[in-house]
């Protein structure tokens, strides 16, 4: 089992695909270490990119938002900033349009109105999906903006000369009307189209325009709540979005999906087809490369660093916090160097954990306090360098007065923990439980409260074994005193199915 690890470490990037009819799991490996994990379940497919025929259920002028019914369990959310309109400066109307104040949402949509909308954020927690009426359809080389009149070039193509050259080539292929507008909407050229031929670009333009025409045709004939267009499966998005020039191999353990991806890739991503490999070993592909152990570690609060330090990661509804600790690391010459080296290692580890766990939103990193300004700047530079490898957009602020680093990471899908786990039914997600003594005192107060309202012959307390044991032992004197005070007998009964905090008081 060691040989594949050595082969894997030689490649800059490998992508492993574990496919079953009910679930697809994808791991991105760089230099032998897992950098990203993606999961998709057949019954819980993500909605991002899907296009629906929606119906306005409610307009909220105070929030400049509307709730849209798209046929899901919860109504989806549309903010005025995500409405496509000239008044919002979203139709490429130039500086004048961009400078104009946004048109209030109540003047743009009304209850009962039918809208074609696209999901830009999956439902997360108790929040419904977030929508936009600015539709975009991703192809292999281009992103089509059918309602826009704009040509854009990926920001990752840095050379100004190359960007202008690509813009002119794309402009000629898209074509213009007599009024000077681009024919059939706008396009954004993706990073992997940097070296594409005119023929390849023309094919992608034709495919995207045909896709939009089919969506519009279905929209005219479909009632609200209809799914008009669904984004690619995770396995297909591997070829479209994850594979790049640095990818050495894409290994997939299903012969059926391997053949499907070869056919799909031949049409849409011919450059990635040669990297596809069918893994036919006896051991599961994720077992071979120890991915399941990585997933287990990615669900833990504590992340150990090689130096002996460690991270504590806590994910809440509002934000994610990362605390850095030196732990057992004492290898540097002095305490300042120990802290500095731990923080440097933590910067890379935090960036990797954000990708691995798919953590988004507001993130606060509490590095160990550093007294030297040059150490702070070096750690911050290393942190930004590691985050630059992230395919998801991140924004990092400097150190605050309290020595914290604030950052944001764009969140479009649920985190790994939210996909794989659910809150504990015993503690209800708090992570702590009341002590048996605290529950005993709750019970004594409740019996007294019931005794003042009712007059039964006897009170029976039904609780967990630990609570009943304490009432019979350490708290027996208090129980007897209460029974004497209310003038009623109090009996105890153990119910194995109850959690430590649950109890019931039966009036007999």
Provide keyphrases for this structure.
6-stranded mixed β-sheet; 5-stranded mixed β-sheet; disordered N terminus; alpha+beta; 508 residues
Set out the fold topology.
Blueprint: H1 2-10, E1 13-19, E2 23-30, E3 33-41, E4 51-60, E5 65-69, E6 76-79, H2 94-99, E7 114-121, E8 130-132, E9 137-138, E10 142-145, E11 151-153, H3 160-174, E12 186-189, H4 198-221, E13 226-229, H5 234-242, E14 247-252, H6 255-268, H7 270-273, E15 276-278, H8 285-288, H9 291-298, E16 302-304, E17 310-315, E18 319-325, H10 335-357, E19 361-366, H11 373-387, E20 394-399, E21 405-409, H12 416-420, H13 436-453, E22 459-463, H14 465-472, H15 476-486, E23 490-494, E24 503-507
Parallel strand pairs: 1-14, 6-8, 11-12, 14-15, 18-19, 22-23
Antiparallel strand pairs: 1-2, 2-3, 4-5, 4-7, 4-13, 5-6, 7-8, 9-10, 10-12, 16-17, 17-18, 19-21, 20-21, 22-24
